[in-house]
Fold this sequence. Notes:
single chain; 248 residues; alpha/beta; 9 helices; 39% helix
Amino acid sequence: MTGQKQAVEDIVGMGIDGCRGGWLVCRIKQNGRPEFELQRSLADMPGLLTSGVDVFIDMPFGLSADQPRLCDSLARALLGKRASTIFPVPCRKAVYAASYAQACQINQTLCGKKLSIQAWNLTPKIRELDQFLRTNPSLQNLFYESHPELCFRWLNDGRVLSSSKKTSVGQAERLRLLQKRARIDQPTLIRWRKRMGLSNAQPDDLLDALALAVCAAAPRKLRYFVPETPLHDAFGLRMNVVCLSNAE
């Protein structure tokens, strides 16, 4: 067996987080060591995927036609005071609107609510993921929509973190939790970020991607979904969010 093949087979979980430079990919190995890579486009992603290794991604897919997604409200309920970290996902027509003003008008008409500028700023990546999964239907069973704050909730024994990931205190807390499941430290994170370019990914992007990878690598028996029975959009994409149970 070649070293390259062995390295691929050692991958046990994968997390993807959108970032300024594109998509931040974290693959975690069986020994707990993570590796990070910056991908400009999802079109380059298939070469990084490993058969049988699940991908947790912090980007919504499965777009509602004319109402808010149930999975978003259920996921927000799990986060309590951190619920605002999960934004209401625009409906499909709003995601593909030509402008923010048009998207607000469409979403107001179909869903009864305009969308935030933060949600609008994510629509290019939502569209990219939507098109990627529709173009590559064989990959749909590998991808699971997740959320880093739900991942950290599991790592924190079911308790929602109160600190923001944008603060040094919040980042230190998240790193300590990740060290339960991954062989990582602050100097290593800094080296990875420098390798990818400091302007391409923020410190919290690496922490989020690693949290997603750690949870993707966790035993599948711990997984549950909101809603339990997924709804599907007009193109057959699941509309649910994966979570992990602390009751083993």
